Amino acid sequence: MPTPGASPWREPEHDELADLVRAFFAKEVLPHTARVLAQGHPDREHYRRAGELGLLGLSVPAEYGGGGGGFSHEAVLLDEQMRAGDSSLGLAVHSGIVTGYLVAYGTEEQKRRWLPGLCDGTLIGAIAMTEPDGGSDLQAMRTRAVRDGDDYLVSGAKTFISNGGLADLVILAAKTDPAQRAAGVSLLVCEVGEDSPGFRRGRLLSKIGLKGNDTAELFFDDFRVPAANLLGGAEGLGFAQLMGQLPQERLVIGIGAVAAMERAIELTVAYVKERTAFGKPLIGHQNTRMVLAECATRTRASRVFLDDCIARHVRGELDVATAAMAKYWLTEGQCEVVDRCLQLFGGYGYTTEYPIAQMYADARAQKIYGGTNEIMKELIARAL
């Protein structure tokens, strides 16, 4: 398998960053994995510690408290998180998505108000699009934001919100003009807390995987949001803003998919070299070698495709259809490779004592969030 530093877009600084990220997860996060999985959410302190180390907001300009880098640095962070085996910290959403919206669309005052907190870990970010009655059809959302003087009164419900249990800052998609579809959607930056009038967190959702991440329901009942928190400064821009950022969100998902595939193969190769059956190591059996050869080839091809997408995105050239291809094909590959690797563990692969079991459960959501893979195929087909 190729080494992590073999990607053509990586420079020595990326490898130095990877070393720092690896050490952070090994020292600060992984020793607490069992407790975090049991409680169903990460520790706020882990975000703060990541912020102290400069690992949050890597692509945010330094003037707003960020690392002053680019998306390639975020890619290294997310790759190393998956390789470490952590799925609790919602860095893909916090740094890979939320900060991107503020950098791209925020006013100067909005950037200076919120980005430093997101970068030092004192604020945790989330984005709320999906609703109980619909996910992929964003134009049909029912959450409303009605102007009331200098505020908006927000009412509605959101669900499947990653980081929703801990989030202090939520980029909320709502209808400011219910008579319109796409043209009626706006994004509001909501500052939320346990004592915020009109805001309530629902239960942390019980999931088959990603058990350490706080996926929650959020409820708004005439929740007041200052009109100054309207992202972009004008109503009706939300749908275009969402469409502009979704390619990066889908690329973020693809990064996790490929890193998971590579980790699955590494774990499986180590296991089949140690485990014996019928008098010889599992690696000595032809079926084992053929399965691993097929998985390794699929994974290598996926890495090459992902590297091309990252390079395109860094140049500002990643189009909607290619991002959809990456999200669809790479997550399908993740689920296939992890499943086939788990099979080689036999019964042990189905026990939570082995990481491959958690990887199997975690992988399934990848084909759903960020736009289902069925939607991805539709986007690809439209571009043909």
From TrEMBL:
Pathway(s) of this molecule: Siderophore biosynthesis; mycobactin biosynthesis
Coiled-coil residue windows: none
Domain Acyl-CoA dehydrogenase/oxidase C-terminal: residue ranges: 238-384
Pfam family name, one: Acyl-CoA_dh_M
Cellular component annotations (GO), alphabetically ordered: cytoplasm
Classification via InterPro entries: Acyl-CoA_dehydrogenase, Acyl-CoA_DH_CS, Acyl-CoA_Oxase/DH_mid-dom, Acyl-CoA_Oxase/DH_mid-dom_sf, AcylCo_DH-like_C, AcylCo_DH/oxidase_C, AcylCoA_DH/ox_N, AcylCoA_DH/ox_N_sf
Role according to the record: Catalyzes the dehydrogenation at the alpha-beta position of ACP-bound acyl chains. This results in the introduction of a double bond in the lipidic chain, which is further transferred to the epsilon-amino group of lysine residue in the mycobactin core by MbtK.
Record family assignment: Belongs to the acyl-CoA dehydrogenase family.
Protein name per its UniProtKB record: Acyl-[acyl-carrier-protein] dehydrogenase MbtN
Annotated organism of origin: Actinoplanes nipponensis
Lineage of origin: Bacteria, Bacillati, Actinomycetota, Actinomycetes, Micromonosporales
